[in-house]
Amino acid sequence: MKSAHIQHLYNRIGFGITPLKLERLSKKSKHEIVDDIFINSATITPIKADLSFLKDIKPGDLKDKEKRQEIRIKSRKKVQKFSVSWMERILNPTEVFREKMTLFWANHFVSESRNNILFTQNYNNLLRENAFGNFKDFTKKIAKDASMLGYLNNKQNRKKSPNENFARELMELFTLGQGNYTETDIKESARAFTGYSHNFRGQFVMRKNHHDENEKTFFGKTGNFTGDDIIDIILDQEQCAKFISEKIYRYFVNENINKNHVAEMTAIFYKNYDIEKLMRFVLLSDWFYDDENIGTKIKSPMEFLAGIHTIVPYDFEKPKQAILVQRLLGQTLLRPPNVAGWKTGRNWIDSNTLVRRLRLPSILLNNAEITYSDTGDEETMVTNLSAKKLKRKAFIRTKTDWSSFEKNYEKIDNKNLITQVLSSKINPGTEKLLLENINIPKKDFCIQLMSTPEYQLC
């Protein structure tokens, strides 16, 4: 398999690849490499938070206002720590493709539970566990997840006063896409999801006294439908397979849809909604490796940070600074902007985030420092740390592992480093600048490569 194609594959299913691994894999066939990717991501390793503070808490404790507030404050801090743990997992993944798929599903089945670490942990691991599973089963589990039940108000969905929020987003954002259902379908399906709730520990509970047992008419079918029945009917629509295939194509292949390729994906996926089978088909398709799909995708902030880490491992000296960097770049894990999630592609880049991205490799790897205002709309390179006006600013500092870089890139000179780091076509101006600096130390040249506009693409 061509080295450029292996690099492309690992940029999309993970966060880049080192020269040593690239050299090893270049001796294998495409099928062998793709098989290895799935074998290496077969294991499921949940992220676990410290929940010991919940051990002795009883449901009755939540009736006490002060006790409830105390639990909420502790839980909120744990959620923040969980966000850091998730980022650390992304930077140091064992099951690489599973973690990339977890990121994808987090921006599809969007949910948030800021004040409950147990619900946050369960939701995040639910995404990880079902990343390559059956989409029908996955959707049914999401509908019963405590975090989702709270986020989209289905906990308040009762037969006497149906709440349509989850039913609407289920079809618009999770399965069919806008315009592929009617307002009547929303109302009728909402009735099927009445009574969905959970207990104190986040386990699903059907409140039968709140469930509407009467007949509902949904997509032309009539019956005493439950939520599971509604999901079955939705997935009977080929539009669902097409909608998910399009979303996967935009994320893993190209923001610009190729209808023929998506039609092929839809045909595969519609048979049994097997996510792994769909992803295998994509990665083994010749068109996945077409030039038009290589180096054309704008990296998300997490892909950008993880890509740098693949080349030069680094650790934040203070965990909170990991969240600060996420905010700087516009993607804070566990804090989606809304139920539609983050807008991708060109939406990742604006005048502020582009400047921050271009500076960040030097900040993370070269002991440069950056200030971050409380408003989040400015940053300044700092040289005089004793200035009084900077005392209220925060600084990002890391520990870098240049020894790993030197080991992985020992046989790579600066000229070849260009193609190792950059996968997109290089602008003539960028190329001229790089060639002028081709003889600078390899570390500095690497940072310069990661500080180019071309490095924003994969």
TrEMBL record:
This is DUF1800 domain-containing protein. It holds the Pfam family DUF1800. It comes from Polaribacter aestuariivivens. InterPro entries: DUF1800.
